[in-house]
Amino acid sequence: MEFELIERQALVVWLYTLKQVKNIRKYGHVHFISNRLRYVILYVYRDEQDEIIEKLNKLHFVQKVEVSYRDDIDMTWKDAIPNRKDKDILQEKSVVEAEEDTVTGDVHYDSFLKSLRDSLLNKDDLQ
Asked: Per-residue b/e over 27-58, b at no fewer than 16 CB within 10 Å?
């Protein structure tokens, strides 16, 4: 058995009143209901979309039906802001660089050890 992706489309159904929301459930999957703005996000099969829009528009409590534009929007945001400095990436790089310094015995680590040794030797001389 092979998996087949069934295309779905989101519809925004604007209502006059929310009393009949249960009646809309038979037309598709209700994803979200806005009580304040009185709309419903309804997912339907794409091949049945036109028929369902016509049926919904005939209902007396439906103000209008709109097709969602979410599929048309480009959702890749990687380079949306040019020259952006991502704090998370910079922190990851600094952690990796610090780990490399301790492993390879870089100058920073060696200088720290030398200063620590000198400070300990100076304390012994003072006593």
From this structure: bbeeeebeeeebbbbbbbeeeebeebbeebee
What's the Cα-to-Cα distance from 60 to each of 16, 17, 20, 126, rounded to whole Å? 9, 10, 10, 94
* Lowest-pLDDT range of 2-6, 81-85, 101-105: 101-105
Residue 64 or residue 125, greater confidence: 64
Residue closest to 38 by CA, chosen among 10, 22, 14: 14
Selected from 2.40.260.10, 3.30.70.80, 3.10.180.10, 3.10.20.540, the CATH number assigned to the domain covering 8-72 reads 3.30.70.80
